[in-house]
Amino acid sequence: MKCMVCEMSSNEELIIMRNREVVVFHNPQPFNNGHLIIALLEHRSINEIDKSQFTELMGITRKFVGILQRVYNPHGFNIGISLSPHVYIQVVPRWNGDVSFMTLFYNVKVVPETVKDSVSRIKSAVREYGI
């Protein structure tokens, strides 16, 4: 089975930033606008990463929560860590009442902004506010 993180992190249309350790990209099937995935570039499980990699992953996550707060002004965030086979963090901006009847009855999520527009807005904010 192919690694979803490795596959998506090579899609330049989704990538917001990349450094020596971490890649940040927009989820191609977002739960909400600005749904990001922050992953180590190395394909490793939680037990295989060292303290500096974990610190870098969490530091970038913290910075992007700040960026998303400025871009979207959500009421809060859901942050989840997937531990294997590739460590990554999902950051999902949340708004009061963001679960609609479409989700409840039809298992469909209506996201008002395209992934392309979200990536563009977040990249602009990264340039403006820095990482």
TrEMBL record:
SUPFAM superfamilies according to UniProt: HIT-like
Keywords in alphabetical order: Hydrolase
InterPro entries hit by this protein: AP-4-A_phosphorylase, HIT-like, HIT-like_sf
KW Secreted (keyword) present: no
Lipid metabolism is among the record's keywords: no
Any one GO molecular-function label of the UniProt entry: hydrolase activity
Gene3D superfamilies listed in its UniProt record: HIT-like (3.30.428.10)
Source organism, top-level taxon: Archaea
Domain HIT: 1-101
Protein name, entry field: Hydrolase
